[in-house]
Amino acid sequence: MSNALRWNLDSLFPGGSASPQYAAFVGETEVLVTSLLKELQDSSGSEAGLDRLTEWTDKLQTAVSRLREADAFVSCITSQDMKDKRAVAWTERIQTLSSKLKQAMDLYDANLASVPDSEWQEWSGRAAAEIRFPLDERRDSAKDKLPPALEAVASELAVNGYHGWGEHYNTIVGRISIPWNDDNGQEEKLLSVGQAANKLDDPNPSVRDAMAVKWEEAWSGQADLTADTLNRLAGFRLKLYGMRGWDDPIREPLRINRMSRETLDAMWKAVEGGIEPLKRYLKLKAQRFGKEKLAWHDVDAPIATSQAKIPFEEASHLITDAFERFSPNMAKLARKAFEERWIEAADRPGKRPGGFCTSFPISRQGRIFMTYSGTPGNVSTLAHELGHAYHGELVEELPPFAQDYAMNVAETASTFAEALVSDALLGRAESKEDKLALLDDRLQRAVAFCMNIRARFLFETRFYDRRASGMLEADELSELMVAAQKEAFGDALGSWHPHFWAAKLHFYITDVPFYNFPYTFGYLFSTGLVAVAEREGVSFSERYDSLLRDTGIMTVEQLASRHLGIALDEPRFWEDAVARAVADVETFARLIEE
C-alpha cells in the first residue's frame, strides 16, 4: 500500500498509542492542569486580584493548547484502528483530563464574573485586549450556569457517564462486521462500517441495493444498544439544562455557534421555501436511473456508472491548482499537507467511517482522516478537509482563546474550499457526461446540506421534545427519523433510511450538541462568499483570510456585518444563497433532456 495514502503520525508522537513521547506529553499536561485546578480551588470564595487573573489566563491558555494537541492525537489513533485498546484507554484518560480542565475553567469563569464591571472594562481592555471577546463570553456564560462546585461535579460525572456513552457508541460501531461477496459472488468477506458505507454510493445499482439491505439489517441488529445510548446522551443533556434553568435544548448549540435564534430561523425558512428545484433534480436523476423515484441510497450514487476514478495524486494536483487560482496561501498549505503526509486516505479494515480534520496547535500541523476510493465526492471531501486545515493555519498565530472558532464558521472555510475545487473541475469538463457527473456531485451536496441536514435537525429537535417525557424505543426513533426525512425531502424519494439515527455518528458526538445545522450554515454562508469571490477575484482572498482570522472573536452576525456588510438575521442573504445553491438544476436538466 502506498505511503502517500497513509498519514504520518510519528512526526508528532512516534509509536502510535504506545508512544513514550505522547505518554510524557500527556503526563506533563496532567501536572499543569492539576496544579492549576488546585490553585483555583484554593482561591475559591476569596477575591482574586487582577494580577492573579492575568497569571491564570496565561496558564489556562497554555493548558488549552496542550490538551488540544493531546486530544487531536488520540482522535487520530482511535480513528485509524477502532480496535486499538490502548487508544481507547488514552481516550478515557484525555476525557478525564478534559474534565479537570473544564473544572478549572469553570472556577476561572466564576472569577471573571466576580470582577466589578468598571474594573473588568479596564483590565480586559489592557491586559487581555486580543481575547476580550471570548473572555466576555466566558464571563456572561458563568452567570448563566450552576455554581462552580456543581458544574465541577457534573463535569466529573460526565467522564464515565455522558462521554462514556459516546465512547460506548464507538465500541458498538467497531464491532459491526457486514458480510459481503466479492465481485464474482463467490468469496464472502467481512467489511467494516467504513468500507461498507463506500458501497452505498457504488456506481453499480445492484451493489447499492444489496448493501442497502445489509446496511439496514446491520444497524437494526444494534438498534436496542444504539437507542439506549442515544437516550442516555439526550437525558444527560436535558437534566443538566434543567438544573441550569434552561428550557430550550437549542440554547447551548446556538451559544456555542455564536449565532442568534433569529439567524437560525431565517436560514431554515429560506431553505424550506427554496428547495423545490432540488426535488426536480432528484426526479430527473431517478429518470436517468430508470426509476420512478430514487431510493434513499441512490441519492449519493454517481450518475455516470462508467466514470473514471481519480487517482489520489491527480486529486492532489487538482485541488492545489484550484486553490492557487484564488489564493496562493491556500495552495501552499495544500502542498504542505500532501508532501508532509498529513492525510490518512487508505481504504483498509478497522477504520471508523467518515472524515475529519484536526489541528495540532503546538506542532502547528494538521491531520486529515478519510477513506479515498477515487470518486469526485472523495475529491470534494479532501478539499473540504483541507479548507479546515487552512482555517487552522490562519488562526495558529493568535492567542489560544482567540483560536476557538465555532463549528458553523469552521464549515464555512471547508465548504468554500470544496466549492473552489468543484468549480475548477466543472470548468475543465468537456463531454456532456463529465459535466453531468460534476453537476450531480454539486447538487448532491446541495441536497445533503439543505435536505439531509434539515431532516437531522427536525429529527433531533423532535427527539429532544419527546425525550423530556421519557425514553424512546428503537421503533419510535425510526418512526421519528422517517417522518423527518419525508418532511425534508417531500415526495422526492421512494424509500427511506429508518435506522439513520443509529448509523450517523453525528448524533452521538458529545463535544457539540445538535451537530447538524452548523453544516447548513457553513454551506450557505460559503455560497455567499463564493459569489463575492467571483465578483472581486483574487483581491477578495485577503478579506477572506481576515474574516477567518476573526471567527474566534466575533459572533457570526458581527462577522458578516464587518467583512461583508450583510445582515444574517434577515431573510434576503439566505434566500439568495439558497437560490444560488440550486441554480445548477437548470443546467443539469438541460443536459439530461438533450
Provide structural commentary.
It holds the Pfam family Peptidase_M3_N. One of its GO terms (biological process) is proteolysis. Its cofactor is Zn(2+). With about 600 residues, the protein is mainly alpha-helical. The chain has a domain of about 160 residues: Oligopeptidase f, N-terminal domain (Butyryl-CoA Dehydrogenase, subunit A, domain 3). It contains 25 helices and five strands. It has a three-stranded mixed β-sheet, sandwiched between helices. It has a two-stranded antiparallel ribbon with strand order 1-2. The longest helix is centred in the last third of the chain and has 36 residues. It is globular.
Largest sheet: 3 strands, mixed
Mean pLDDT: 93
Second-tier CATH architecture of the domain at 3-160 = Up-down Bundle
User: What structural category characterises the helix and strand content?
Assistant: mainly alpha
- Gross morphology is globular
Distance between the termini: 43 Å
Q: What is the radius of gyration?
A: 24 Å
At the fold tier of CATH, the topology name of the domain at 3-160 is: Butyryl-CoA Dehydrogenase, subunit A, domain 3
**What percentage of the residues does DSSP assign to strands (E)?**
under 5%
Strand segment tally: 5
Q: Summarize the amount of helix as a percent range.
A: 55-70%
Uncertain regions spanning at least 5 consecutive residues: none
Order of adjacent strands in the largest pleated sheet? 3-5-4
Order of helices and strands: HHHHHHHEEHHHHHHHHEEEHHHHHHHHHH
What's the CATH superfamily of the domain at 3-160, by name? Oligopeptidase f, N-terminal domain
